[in-house]
Write a structure and sequence with these properties.
alpha/beta, binds 3'-deoxy-guanosine-5'-triphosphate, 12 strands, binds magnesium ion, elongated
């Protein structure tokens, strides 16, 4: 792990660097606070920081304050002030400036090493937290079965497209899906829904939207009014000509689609109602078709 060492005194710096190397850290060296701030910027910078207090230009406490002001709240560096100032007021000032820890010189090697390990644990905890947060955010927007956008997310995205440019909304409903469940069981039905989502997903282009509206109903959104009928018909043919892989072999399904163009600035609920009417017509006219 990289450790940034900001220390103006050559002897202290050399000692610190050699002991850090011995412990397996990768020291990055700054000779004052300003250099430290520059080295701590950007991706790949050290997250563990050792700051001397008294340094020319920008001192350690000031560097610490500035670090805290500009830090990404999801990726704060772990800062240890390492200083000869041992009076209580300085310790309080250093910690209030945002230091995570405060070590006085002359420091004991074993203690410093243990305190750096505390820093590593804190950084690992932050990383785990970030991972969990990212997973939760993903879960909140994606359907658990198929992995595509869930109802809320796809409606949000359609709303956004509708505001900006207008959108073609295609409401897709698998035909006689109840029979798939009745014939093969619900687990195979679930496999079909997953395979369906990935089959459609393969054929999407950048900027297209695709999400699960609910059950065996899906929403597609295309940002431009042209060329969509042949694309939707291509999806239908693709679906009806090749079975979808499931745990008990291939299952062939078809879908019916109601598609409508929504002009920029229109209302999504009205657009969806029109798509639903078109879908109803597609079902009534024999299924496995698109109605615009
Ligand atoms: P239609 O052609 O008129 O759309 O007929 P359908 O059978 O597809 O329509 P219906 O709305 O009567 O039935 C939908 C079926 O989809 C019933 C329900 O059990 C099934 N279904 C909905 N969600 C899931 C799911 O997550 N997994 C499985 N396996 N089945 C689901
Ligand atoms: Mg100094
Ligand atoms: Mg349905
Ligand atoms: Mg159906
Ligand atoms: Mg139905």
């Amino acid at each position: 792990m990289k450790v940034l060492v900001a220390e103006d005194d050559l002897t202290s710096r050399t000692l610190l660097v050699s002991v850090l190397r011995k412990w397996g850290f990768e020291p990055v060296v700054a000779e004052d606070g300003e250099e430290a701030l520059a080295l701590l910027e950007g991706a790949g910078a050290a997250r563990l920081v050792l700051l001397d207090w008294s340094m020319p230009r920008v001192d350690g406490v000031e560097a610490c304050r500035r670090l805290r002001e500009r830090e990404d709240p999801d990726d704060p560096p772990y800062v240890v002030l390492l200083t000869g100032r041992s009076e209580k007021e300085s310790i309080v000032e250093g910690l209030e400036a945002g230091a995570n820890d405060y070590v006085t010189k002359p420091y004991d090697n074993e203690e410093l090493r243990a305190r750096l390990r505390v820093g590593e644990r804190m950084l690992a905890l932050q990383e785990a937290l970030n991972g969990a947060k990212a997973a939760l955010i993903h879960q909140a927007r994606h359907d658990g079965l198929t992995g595509i956008l869930n109802r809320r997310a796809v409606l949000e995205e359609l709303e956004r497209l509708l505001l900006r440019t207008g959108v073609v909304v295609a409401l897709c409903d698998l035909d006689r899906f109840k029979e798939v469940n009745d014939r093969h069981g619900h687990l195979v039905g679930d496999d079909v829904l997953r395979a369906f989502a990935s089959r459609i997903g393969e054929r999407l282009e950048k900027g297209d939207l695709f999400g699960r509206y609910g059950g065996e109903e899906f929403l597609l959104g295309f940002p431009s009014p042209g060329e969509n009928r042949p694309r939707l018909e291509g999806l239908l043919r693709d679906l009806s000509s090749r079975g979808l892989p499931t745990r008990s072999g291939e299952v062939r399904v078809t879908m019916s689609v109601g598609a409508v163009w929504g002009r920029g600035g229109g209302r999504l609920d009205l657009l969806l109602a029109r798509a639903d009417e078109a879908l109803y017509r597609a079902k009534r006219e024999g299924r496995d078709r698109v109605v615009f």
